[in-house]
Amino acid sequence: MTKNLKIKVCGMKSTQNREQVEALGVDMLGYIFYGPSKRFVGDSPDAGLFQSDKAKVGVFVNENAFEILGLAKNFDFEYIQLHGKENPKTCGILKSQGLNIIKAFAMDDDFKFSSTAAFEGIVDYFLFDTKTKEHGGSGKKFNWHLLENYKGNTPFFLSGGIGPDDAAEIKKLNHPMLAGVDLNSGFEDEPGLKNIEKLRKFIAELKK
């Protein structure tokens, strides 16, 4: 099953690095539009950063829907990933404009999967990330066994602290709704700069 997992690499900041990542055969590239993040694309991002033929994902935290729509149009995003307290109505507004929606949930041992139910049928994917004080890129894992409690019908991405040595463990996961992996801080030389060899090795192992 894991041979068909989508590979999403998030937190792209430089055109050259994006081109190198793209050449690895990844499926999706994520760009963070959240000022406090170390991987924020910046107020005037590199002009070539978004000139990719891979699926582009704009990542936002509690941003105004109309601001998101404007940026999605400017940069030709196919996907919008929402990492804050966005409600189903906001997701529906964005979805109605032709965008694919990924809704992130912060996971810890107290997480209730019932909180995902209101988004069923509205968003395209869930993304299960580790709960931290900051949003994303913590390098910390949550307990993946919690995923066994997810009985919903929306496919999901696994995120949160995935590193170069985790391919074998991910291949053991047999959840029917696991659609892909979200790779970020575990494959970086510095925030926003991905280590190409680590990514290449991981992807090859995952697809074996």
Please, could you describe this protein's structure?
The longest helix has 11 residues, at 65-75. 37% of the residues are buried. The protein is globular. It has an eight-stranded parallel β-barrel with strand order 1-2-3-4-5-6-7-8. It has a two-stranded antiparallel ribbon with strand order 9-10. The mean pLDDT is 94. The protein is 22% helix and 23% strand. It is α/β, with parallel strands linked by helices. The N and C termini lie close together (11 Å). It has one domain (2-206): Aldolase class I (TIM Barrel), CATH 3.20.20.70.
Name the descriptors.
208 residues, alpha/beta, TIM Barrel, 5 helices, 22% helix
Helix-strand layout with pairing:
Blueprint: E1 6-9, H1 15-22, E2 28-32, E3 55-60, H2 65-75, E4 79-82, H3 88-96, E5 100-107, E6 125-130, E7 156-158, H4 167-172, E8 178-183, E9 188-190, E10 193-194, H5 196-206
Parallel strand pairs: 1-2, 1-8, 2-3, 3-4, 4-5, 5-6, 6-7, 7-8
Antiparallel strand pairs: 9-10
Question: If you average the pLDDT, what whole number results?
Answer: 94
Q: Kindly provide the radius of gyration, computed on alpha-carbon positions and rounded to a whole number of angstroms.
A: 16 Å
Strand content: 15-25%
CATH topology descriptor: TIM Barrel
CATH architecture tag: Alpha-Beta Barrel
Query: What is the approximate shape?
Result: globular
Q: Number of DSSP strands?
A: 10
Number of helices: 5
Q: What is the CATH H-level superfamily? A: Aldolase class I
Unreliable parts: none
Domain N-(5'phosphoribosyl) anthranilate isomerase (PRAI): 8-203
Family: Belongs to the TrpF family.
Protein name: N-(5'-phosphoribosyl)anthranilate isomerase
Keywords: Amino-acid biosynthesis, Aromatic amino acid biosynthesis, Isomerase, Tryptophan biosynthesis
